[in-house]
Amino acid sequence: MVDIFDEVEEDLRAERAARLLKKYAWVIIAVALAIIGAAVGWQLWERWQSRQDMAAAQRYIAAQTAAESVPASGKAAAIAMLDRQAATAPEGYRTLSRLRAAELKADGGDLAGAVALWNQVAADPSADRLLRDLASLMVAQRQLDHGDPAELEARLKPLATSDNPWFALAREQLALLDLRQGKKAEAKAAFKSLSIDIAAPTGLRQRAAAMLTGMGDE
């Protein structure tokens, strides 16, 4: 008797399952197609993104080659190429293009144009933090001998902390800024600290030691 009831219950379950399958078959098919479509779309998007990155890299290299093949006075074509890159390339290459174009403009005498590009990078929340800080450092370096000391300090001090990759260069610029303002004692203390800081690059430590020697430090 128990076996009969079990068989009946199994038949009922099978019948209900068949009715549900027939009723919602279109839903199952639609979900399956959506999953397949999403997977294919993702693969196509990744392939397209890879091609975009490759094309951007090739254009960036072409601009670099053009910049290196002519003197500073003839780099307008390279700057134009980099400007186009900055407007259309994927994010990483946009930032690199702006930084390189700024350097070329500064070397060519267009400091105002260079500072404008560096400021764009420094203020761009989508750019890598390392590159934003580099842009701020470049502005300070190029304006160190004539820029407003308060503005330069405001740019450099956040970069001079030990956890920032540019800390040594920022501290060097702050020391030079102290020297420019006649703060010789503060400058000497900063150069002395840099000259013995093993976390600073060797060349920078040597420059700091040379500055101390030039300032009469024993």
Quick rundown:
The protein is mostly helical and 218 residues long. It has 9 helices and no strands.
Task: Characterise this structure.
This protein is mainly α and 218 residues long. The chain has nine helices and no strands. The chain has helices at residues 2-68, 76-88, 91-107, 111-122, 129-143, 149-156, 167-180, 184-195, 202-214. α1 packs parallel to α3, α4 (111-122) runs antiparallel to α5 (129-143) and α5 packs antiparallel against α6 (149-156). The mean pLDDT is 78.
Helix percentage range: over 70%
**Radius of gyration from CA coordinates:** 31 Å
Mean pLDDT: 78
Alpha carbon gap, first and last residue: 108 Å
The fraction of residues assigned to DSSP E strands is: under 5%
Structural class: mainly alpha
The 3D shape can be described as elongated
* Poorly predicted residue ranges: none
Number of helices: 9
Strands, count: 0
The major beta sheet can be summarized as: none
Annotation keywords:
mainly alpha; 218 residues; single chain; 9 helices
SSE map:
Layout lengths: L1 H67 L7 H13 L2 H17 L3 H12 L6 H15 L5 H8 L10 H14 L3 H12 L6 H13 L4
Helix pairs in contact: 1-2, 1-3, 2-3, 3-4, 4-5, 5-6, 6-7, 7-8, 8-9
